[in-house]
Fold:
Amino acid sequence: PVWNEKPCVAIVGTRKPTPYGVQQAERFASELSAKGIHIVSGLAYGIDADAHTAALNQPGGTTAVLGSGLGKIYPAKHYNLSEKIVLQNGAVISEFLYDEEPEATNFPARNRIVAGMCIATIVIEAAASGGALITAKMAFDENREVYAIPGNLTSNTSDGCNRLIRDNVAKLITHPDELLSDLESVLDGFLNQNTTFSQPQVILSETETRILSHLETGERLLDQLAELTGISMSVLMSELLSLEFKGLIKQLPGRKFIRI
Structure:
């Protein structure tokens, strides 16, 4: 797959960017892709689409990860963009069934794939809450590098980026060369194929360990896990996403989970 052949960097952000955000998304995506870095995003309106488009005709190329099935490109207005991505030796991928609709609960799952595919995530304009911050948090929790472009203190679209920097979740970045310099050893090894990546040590929380213990004997329904573990549904969903992201469980059709 193309994303295994090249180092991948995620570019994510708001669906309603300012002209500044559009400019930065195009700048970072085009310059990084020109260096052979593969740009990954979620095909959404705004920063995602701007990043995909800017990387299209560059050596690195781009991949879109969907929160729906491949037969339900979302948003529908980006169907042409998805075709261009594939025709330019990129990819459009999804873990969902072919005709699955873009349900709201699918997008955090989509975001974990975006973060997990990439050695780094760049956030370009993000509100105080939303999918871009979820992706950044997932990348941070999995010891990936996270970067954020600082923005106007009076702009709501910059609240998320500025907060990520303030809370030391993301490194402040102002130019693509800063990422290239910061990740030089990793990128050189990847591009020269002289270095292989080792799997990071998997550290489990007490809650994750408890969930896994109830999957030892086979698959379980989501409701069964909630009853067996005594964990609230909202916390359970979050922990299951974390375990799936760590490659320890797999979600099956019908809201079933199985240990890998």
In short: Residues 19-34 form the longest helix (16 residues).
